[in-house]
Structure formats: C-alpha cells, structure tokens
C-alpha cells in the first residue's frame, strides 16, 4: 500500500521528548511551566475555576492556550507538580498520572451543537478513557496527537498523527499523518480504529528503532501503519481538507436554537478574571486549537458584550484574529525580544507589518507555536524584526 509521498528517513531523535505535563514541570526562564491536557478542549465551569485557582495561587495568574487546545500555567515553583497534580486530579483533569502527557486530542469545534455530519464528542470521551486504561499506550511520545473531525474540516488538516474524518453520517475515514489512509469504518467503529492505529504506530515505531516522536517521522509511516491495522476495508482516498483560513467567531446559532459565542483570546493568554467570567457564563466551554474559546448553550448572544469588555475578541475584522506569538521574553531565555509586548503594541497602534496579514511573531528562528498554512513570520533579530513572507 502506498499513501502519499514516500519518505526515506525521518529526523533522528536521540532523546526522549521532553514535553511538559501537569506533573512533569518544565523549567522556563520565568519559572516552572506545566501543561494541562484537555482532550477535545472541553472544560466544565468547575474545572475552569480549579485551573484559575491554581494559576492564581501557584503560578503567575494567567493561563495560556496552546495550538493543541491545551492549557499552560507559568511561573510555578520548581516543586509545583505534586500540588498541581492533586488539584487537577480532584477537578477531573488528571485521570491518569501515567498517561497524562499523551492525552493530546483535538475535536471539531461546535461538534454536536452546530453543523458537522455527526457528533464527535462521544468519541473524545471513549478514546481518552481507553487510552488511559491501556498501560502500553503510556509509551506514546508526548508529541503524539489525535484529531477527530466531524466532517466540517476544521481539525483534519492540523497534522495529527492519527485522525478520524467523517465523510458522511455512516462513513469515517482514518487519517495517518494528515493523509487519508483509505481505511474506512462506520461511526461506531471509529474509536476502535483510532486505537488500533495508535497501537500500530507504537509497533512500527519500535520496529524502526523506537525514537520517532511523530508518525510522519517514520520511514513510509502512513503506509506501514495502515498495513498494521488489520481487517479494515479500503475505500477510494479523499483529499483531506487543508487547515481552514476562517474560523467561527462571534455569535453562532446552534442546531437546537440556542447560541454559542466563539471568541479569540489575544495571544492565547487568559487571566484568572477571564476564567471566572467564562465559568459564570456557561456549564461548559470549549478551547479551540486556534487559541480561542467557545461558550455554548446560551439562551441568546447578550453575553458577547461581557466577553468583549473583558478583552476577548468576537469581531471577525479584528487584527487579533490574524496575530499569534511565541512565549518570547521573559518566559523563554532563547528569545531576542519581548515579542508579545511588541506584537500587542503593533496591534494597538495599527502598525502591524505586512499590511496586517496573518502573522506569527517569534523570538528566534524556532518559531514555536507557528500556525499552519500561509503565515508571515515576524522574527526577532536582536536589532529589530525580520519579516519573512510566505512563498507563493
Ligand atoms: S520561538 Fe524561540 S524565543 Fe520563541 S518560545 Fe520558541 S525558542 Fe523561545
């Protein structure tokens, strides 16, 4: 079986990935950094309050959103892992100490509420529980990513190792490293298929030396993993939707007549006050992989004014919908500038480079957190910024 372009060899990984977790706190320039996995991005009001309390009492008072719909706390004391882990476990945010770093799971935003071919939320719950229940899957790299797309095409193109894409309400495609494998299942077999592909990734990874962090790093990874997924029928392959250029923002009418409010969080940084406001507004919110939040199941859109007043962005024309940044100074010692402060100043003074095009500000060449697709890079040089326009 051949899937997509053949890769001869992936990057040679000589160390185990060091992705931070809630218990495995990474030491950054501004203190400890912990990452809290939020499968499918779904958080209850009680969980928002628990995270807010942890940020206020243990960290620097803010919570960052990551491009995988997870959360990060910064400025933690070096030994914060135990205390934070206990709080998160109590809030239901740490169901497994052994598997916490591998629970990276994206799901279509608004699935089951507005649009989409089916509701992927039950898949998220089922996959996460099965992942945590299988000891061998704790060996997955912390970079491993799954994505469940309900057919709207919002997360299928985000480069997950294993993905599910609904093709209609009875047919689901298995994606491997963002490419259609041709393997199909009915919706009730989708989670089992994603788990089978996950186990197959681990087996193929072991066969190739056991050092790869991502499925795409394996030699002919998608084809070889597909061969290890037994007994599934093979269909005509489809083009996987690219990362969408526009996302829901503002008020969205749900299928049940209620309202969801989709907001961008400037530079992905939520304050404790934001968390409290979100918890007051809804029983559950969803974090998005584009550093936003969705407040669902509202009677109407009147809460939009409160969110906007708090600094969240519901205007599709806002420059904040097009600007992202890495941590920069003071959080990252490698940074040549306080990129967040500089990007904020450029937004506020309407002086964004490249005519305000979609852009990512970074403190060094690594360009951490860079979104996919056509993005202008604004890279700190130590004596200003270099603007790298995307190739046509
Ligand atoms: S891009 Fe460079 S400066 Fe920014 S967070 Fe990554 S390593 Fe640090």
Please explain how this structure is put together.
The protein is of the alpha+beta class and 392 residues long. It has three domains: 23-93 and 246-317, Sulfite Reductase Hemoprotein,Domain 2 (Sulfite Reductase Hemoprotein, domain 2, Alpha-Beta Complex), CATH 3.90.480.10; 95-244, Sulfite Reductase Hemoprotein, domain 1, CATH 3.30.413; 323-388, no CATH class. 23% of the residues lie in helices and 23% in strands. It has eight helices and 19 strands. The protein has helices spanning 45-57, 80-90, 121-133, 190-207, 221-228, 272-281, 304-309, 339-348, and strands spanning 26-28, 31-36, 42-44, 62-65, 71-76, 105-107, 146-149, 162-168, 171-176, 179-185, 250-253, 259-264, 269-271, 284-288, 292-298, 323-325, 359-362, 376-380, 385-388. The strands form four sheets. A five-stranded antiparallel β-sheet has the order 1-2-5-4-13. It has a five-stranded antiparallel β-sheet with strand order 3-14-15-12-11. Helix 1 runs antiparallel to helix 6 (272-281), helix 3 packs across helix 4 and helix 4 crosses helix 5. The longest helix has 18 residues, at 190-207. It is globular, with a radius of gyration of 20 Å. Iron/sulfur cluster (SF4) binds at residues 326-328, 332, 334-335, 362-364, 366-368.
């Amino acid at each position: 079986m051949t899937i997509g372009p053949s890769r001869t060899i992936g990057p040679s990984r000589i160390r185990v990935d060091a992705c931070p977790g809630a218990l495995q706190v990474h030491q950054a320039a501004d203190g400890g950094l912990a990452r809290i996995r939020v499968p499918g991005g779904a958080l209850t009001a009680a969980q928002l309050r628990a995270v807010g309390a942890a940020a206020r009492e243990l960290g620097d008072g803010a919570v960052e959103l990551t491009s995988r719909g997870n959360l990060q706390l910064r400025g933690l004391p070096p030994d914060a892992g135990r205390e934070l882990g206990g709080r998160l476990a109590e809030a239901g945010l740490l169901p497994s100490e052994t598997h916490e770093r591998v629970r990276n799971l994206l799901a279509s935003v608004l699935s089951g509420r507005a649009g989409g071919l089916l509701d992927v939320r039950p898949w998220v719950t089922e996959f996460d529980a099965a992942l945590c229940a299988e000891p061998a899957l704790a060996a997955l790299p912390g970079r491993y990513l799954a994505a469940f797309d309900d057919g709207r095409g919002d997360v299928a193109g985000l480069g997950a190792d294993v993905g599910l894409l609904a093709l209609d309400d009875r047919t689901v495609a298995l994606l491997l490293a963002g490419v259609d494998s041709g393997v199909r299942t009915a919706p009730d077999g989708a989670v089992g298929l994603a788990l089978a592909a996950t186990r197959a990734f681990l087996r193929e990874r072991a066969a190739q030396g056991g050092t790869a962090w991502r499925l795409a790093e394996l030699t002919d990874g998608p084809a070889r993993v597909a061969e290890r997924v037994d007994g599934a029928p093979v269909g005509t392959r489809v083009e996987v939707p690219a990362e969408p250029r526009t996302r829901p923002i503002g008020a969205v009418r749900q299928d049940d007549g209620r309202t969801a409010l989709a907001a961008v969080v400037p530079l992905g940084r939520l304050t404790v006050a934001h968390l409290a406001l979100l918890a007051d507004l809804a029983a559950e919110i969803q974090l998005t992989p584009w550093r936003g939040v969705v407040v669902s199941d509202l009677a109407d859109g009147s809460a939009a004014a409160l969110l906007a007043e708090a600094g969240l962005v519901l205007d599709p024309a806002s420059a904040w919908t097009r600007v992202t940044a890495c941590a920069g100074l003071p959080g990252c010692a490698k940074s040549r500038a306080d990129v967040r402060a500089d990007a904020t100043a450029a937004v506020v003074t309407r002086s964004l480079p490249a005519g305000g095009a979609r852009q990512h500000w970074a403190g060094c060449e690594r360009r951490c957190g860079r979104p996919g697709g056509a993005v202008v890079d604004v890279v700190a040089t130590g004596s200003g910024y270099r603007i790298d326009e995307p190739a046509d």
